[in-house]
Every structure is written in C-alpha cells, then in structure tokens.
Amino acid sequence: MKKYKRGLSTSMDLSVTIPSLIFILSVCLFSAIFPQATEATLSRIKEFVFVNLNWVYVWAITIFVLFLLFLIFSKYGNIKLGPNDSTPEHSFFSWIAMLFAAGMGIGLMYFSVAEPMTHYTTTAFSETDFQLRAKNAQLYTFFHYGIHAWAIYGLVGLCLAYFAFRYKLPLSLRSCLYPLLKDRMTGKWGTLIDVFALCSTFFGITTTLGFGVVQINSGLQQLGILPETSFFYQMILVSVLVSLSIISAISGVDKGIKLLSNTNIVAAILLMLFVLFMGPTNYIIGAFTDGVGNYINNFFALTFDTHIYDERALPWFYNWTILYWAWWISWAPFVGLFIAKISRGRTVREFIGAVLLLPTFFIFIWMTVFGNSAIWIDAHIAKGALGALVSDPDSMMFQFLNYFPGSQIASALAIIIVIIFFVTSADSGILVMNTISTRNAKYSPKWQTIFWGVLLALLALMLLNAGGLQSLQIMTLITALPFAVIMVLFSISLMKALIIDQNYYDSTFSVTTIPWSGESWKERLKKMVNFKSKSAINDFIDSHVEPALTELKAEFDSNGINAMIQKYDEPLRIEISISHDTVDNFVYGIKCHRKLVAEYFRQERNLPDVEHQKTYFPKTYFGDGREGYDVKYFTKNELISDVLKHYDRFLEIVSQKDNELFISNNDED
C-alpha cells in the first residue's frame, strides 16, 4: 500500500495511473481550448482510417464472430471461467441485466427511434418504396446492434474472465496476452496496454454520458420540468447523476449496480410493452418475425459487405457501419472488463451463448418495437414529421412518444430509464477505471472511486460547455483501430490457452500407476453392501487415510521432498500437499461427502439395506479442481498408491514445456 505525504492511502499503480491522467487531461484540455481545430484535425485522421483501412474492421469483426461461434460448438465450451468446482456469483437474471446495462446503456434509448428513422430516410439506397426502405432500416439496425456488436464485447470479456479466474492472473487486458508475452506482460508492454484501456474507458464513458445528459435535459424540458436545455441545467444534472453513480459504485456490484440494473431492465420492458400494445401491434409483430428471418438470411452477406460496388452507399457505410464497429471496439475494454468481473463460474459455452444471443434477441425486439413503430407512424400518421427530426436525436424519442395516449407518463418513464442507464453506465465505468488503475487490487480506499467519478463529471462538463465532446468521440474511434489488431491477438492467445487447458484435464495416468489387486475381495464386497454413516467415514479417515498419508509423508521427506499434511473439521477432510514456487502446488485430499439415496432403492428387498436417506463416503479432491471419486474400498497401501498415481501425473504434466502456461503459479500476494 502506497502513502501520500498527508497520509492518504492508495492502491493505485502509479505507472499506469500517472501516464493515463496526463494523456486524458491533455486531450480533454486541447479539445476544450481548441474545439474546432481539434475536431477538424481528428476528423481528417478518422476519414483516412475509415476510407482506407475499413477492411481491418470488417475482417476483425468477422474473426471475432466466427471464433466465438466455433467455441460454442467445440469441446472447449465446457471449460469453466474459474476452477472446475466454481459456481456463478450472481443469478442468471441479474447477470444478464448487468451486462446488458453496461453494454448498451444510454445508446439503446438514444438511437432506438433515431437510427431506424435515419436509415429509413437516407438517400444512400435506391429503394423508394415504403416497405423496402422500412425493411432495410430494420435490417441495418439489427446488424449494427446484434451479434457482431456483442461478439466484440464477448471476446474481450471471455479472455479477461478466463485468464483472471482460470489462470489466477490480474483482471487486466495485459493478462489476455499472457500465452504470447509470458512474463513480459508485467513489463512496459503490459503497462502500455493498461494505460490504453484506462484512457479508452474514460473517453468512451465521458462522451456517452455527455450525450446522455443532453437527452435527459431535452426530455425534462418536453415534460415541462425544466424551462430550457442549457449548460446550467446540464451541470446540475451531471452533478446529481454522477453523485448517484459514485454512491452506487462504492456500494459495489452486489448492491447498487445489481439493484439498478435489475430495476432498469424491468422498467425498459414496461415501456416496450406500452409501445407494443398501444402502437401498431400487428405490424410490429409481423415486422419482428420478418426482420429476424431477413437478418439470418443476410447474415454473412452483411458481415463481408464493404459496399465497394455501390459508391453512393460508401459515405453511409463509413459513417454508420464502420463507425459502429470502431465505437463498439473502443468500448470493449470497459464493457469486457465489467462483464468478466461478474462472470466467474460460468462455462465458456454459457458465457458466449448468453452474451451473444440473449442481448441480441432483446435488442431485436426493442429496436423493432420502437423503430418500426416510428416508421409506421411517420408514414401513416405523422406524414413525414418524425423523419424530419433525424438531425435532432436528443428529442426524437420524446416526440415519438407524443403520438401515444398517456405520452406524459411514457416520456417520464423513458427519462427514468435514461437516468438509470446513465447511472449504471457511470457506476460500472467508475468501478472499471478504479480496477484498471489499481491493477485489480483486492482493496481500494473509497476516495479513489470518488476521484474517478468527480474527474469524469468535471471533464464531461468542460467538454460539453466548450463543444469538445465530438473531438473526444473522434479520438476514441481512431484508437479503436490498433485495439482491433490487439483483439485479434487476444483470440490467438485464448485459443492457445484453451488447447493447453483441455489437454491438461484430458491427461491420463501412466499404466504403471494403476493400482490393481485381487486381494481382500471379500472385504470389498462387504463395503459395497453396507452404506455408511458420517461417523463411519470419519473413522475411516482417521484409521486408514491419515496413517497412509503420514507414512507417505515420511517417505517423501526421506527423498528430499517436503510434504505437509493438514486436517480440517466440518466436514472432516485431510490432505497432503507439496508446495512449489513456480508451479501450482500438488494437493491430494479426501473429505467426507454426503449423498442422498433414492426412495425406491431403500424399499427394494433384493438390494443392500439402507436405514437412512443420507449416506456418506470418502471422496478425493485435488489442487487443480478435477472431479474426485469414492475411495471407501481402498486399503492403506492402495491409498498410498493412489496418491502416487496422481503425483506421477503431476510430474509428467509440469515437466512438459507446453503446459508451462497452465500450471504456472500465478497467485498474487
């Protein structure tokens, strides 16, 4: 723990925090002092990147999607994000709600009407027929918010969760390159990656929250709560909302963030159902069905389409598809790290399936309900009035709700949702920034969380007042290009680790270690037909297991190997372990394990007698989390032989160079 001169403790890693703060403050100040010049310069750079290097984004996104789809159906899908015996920390609903709130947030409200309407009114496509324009608007909205977007988040989140919880590495982007960088990840390359992640997270959150405050201000003006949209009111809104975000972040994931995310997903569903049933219901349901089929049919065509043969559509392609890919990539360090933080104990298959498919399915419903309703209203009721507002996305959602009965209540609910999205994005962003700046320290003083929240609010307001938010957004989009390449390296690194992981657990025993003896078969049969009580298993551990391990320890000691025996109560278990500095410790243990006996088994006359529904047996466990087994039939010598069987396997595995990655001791102090 470091100390400042005034005694203020900090867990920040200064090699990451100081360069990040210098870069963040420099870019923000430059954007605020010279907003027009900065925006013009960065816009030229962005245009060059989008026009000449758009293929990098297209191919990178394609690789991410195909790679994750491969993992779902591969044998690697069963691997857990953590030890084999780990379980999820959050309920499935809370987990989905939190990743969804962090992944899309304000953008879901900001563009749910604006984007479909913009595609509907664009001149980039030749179709003039209402149905064709509406169909294309829905298709490209699905494309930009669907599987491709979540594949970006999913890849980063999967890599972070896997290496942090499975390999016990820091929850940091540098850990995702461990199979390629090895120990160099703790050097300047690892620090550079962490600095990039911190700056990218800060810029992405700042710009998004700046635009979110403008939308909240616009909505409150429409409801008559605020008299105008001005910087003064935006300053008040930022102060209040960031304060709530800081309180939520300090309370932690299990309290504030989870509660707000669960509340917000329920509120969003209520608003969506209101629009669905009060709007053109039959049209919406038919449009959703048709839209999903259209998306599936055009999935690969959309994935690889660069519009190179349609020059009229190229500006639209750069300003929408490529911009979205860059935007999702720029948000990936933040969203991926947050998703990883809440995903311990999930399997690879469960993680990918949930992150790719469930949010995508919900977004398809959401965008259809709002987007297609807006298009239908514009064509049949508003007569083009909504389409004329595409240049004012801040107020479009609220103008759209004015066409519904009870529009004031619906608009109020929409504002509440935007506010909660604001807070959930900000609190998870603050939490992630503190995690990156401390390199995932287990304990951090509360002032650090407050510091990141205050800095976020001050710089967002400064840029909002000076008109520099656009420059910061462009800067964020430009930095997405190198990170797209880094993410490809993440894929290679993860695949290498998964192969080693699978081979490790598939490793069998040497044939010379398999204990087999026909002796004492009568005693074994007697054990088979007698179901044991808890005290009987405890006696077995005391009378058979402990003497066997004690004798084995003495023999290890005589051969220069320092072994240790530890015994624990409730439930009774005993283990022998051999500590190592550079590889994981060897652990072989036996514990008293309970199981329930089926009722029909107890009542069957020609089966062994069972007096109680609960029975107990001695079960092995291992340091690497592999599944154990029943050893109640083992004699003392067979127990010793069984330990040596696993020790022989351990020595064989740690001696193989390819397994260096998986068995390295990555426990941190």
Q: What would you call the quaternary organization?
A: single chain
CATH-defined topology of the largest domain: Amino acid/polyamine transporter I
User: What top-tier CATH class of the largest domain fits best?
Assistant: Mainly Alpha
Strand line-up across the major sheet:
3-4-5-6
Strand runs, count: 6
What is the CATH architecture term of the largest domain? Up-down Bundle
The rounded Rg comes to: 29 Å
Q: What about the largest sheet? A: 4 strands, antiparallel
**Strand content of the residues, in percent?**
5-15%
Q: Average pLDDT across residues?
A: 83
Shape: elongated
- The total of helices stands at 25
How many domains make up the coordinates?
2
**Cα-to-Cα separation, first versus last residue:** 12 Å
Assign a percent range to the helix content: 55-70%
Low-confidence stretches: 1-7
Class by helix and strand content? Answer: mainly alpha
Q: How do you describe this structure in short?
A:
With 669 residues, this protein is mainly alpha-helical. It contains 25 helices and 6 strands. A hairpin with a 7-residue loop joins β4 and β5.
List keywords for this structure.
2 domains; transmembrane; 5% strand; 669 residues; four-stranded antiparallel sheet; mainly alpha; 25 helices; two-stranded antiparallel sheet; transmembrane helix
Fold and architecture overview:
Belongs to the BCCT transporter (TC 2.A.15) family. It is found in: Cell membrane. Pfam families: BCCT. It comes from Sphingobacterium populi. Its main location: membrane. By secondary structure, this protein is mostly helical. It folds into two domains: 13-501, Up-down Bundle (Amino acid/polyamine transporter I), CATH 1.20.1740; 519-663, no CATH class. It has helices at 14-33, 35-52, 54-73, 92-103, 106-111, 114-121, 130-145, 147-166, 178-181, 188-222, 231-251, 253-278, 281-297, 299-304, 314-341, 348-380, 393-401, 407-437, 446-466, 469-506, 521-528, 534-558, 599-603, 636-654, 660-663, and strands at residues 2-3, 9-10, 563-568, 573-578, 586-596, 614-622. The strands form two sheets. The chain has a four-stranded antiparallel β-sheet with strand order 3-4-5-6, covered by helices on one side. Strand 1 (2-3) and strand 2 form a beta hairpin. Helix 6 packs across helix 16. The protein is elongated. The N and C termini lie close together (12 Å). Residues 1-7 have low confidence and may be disordered.
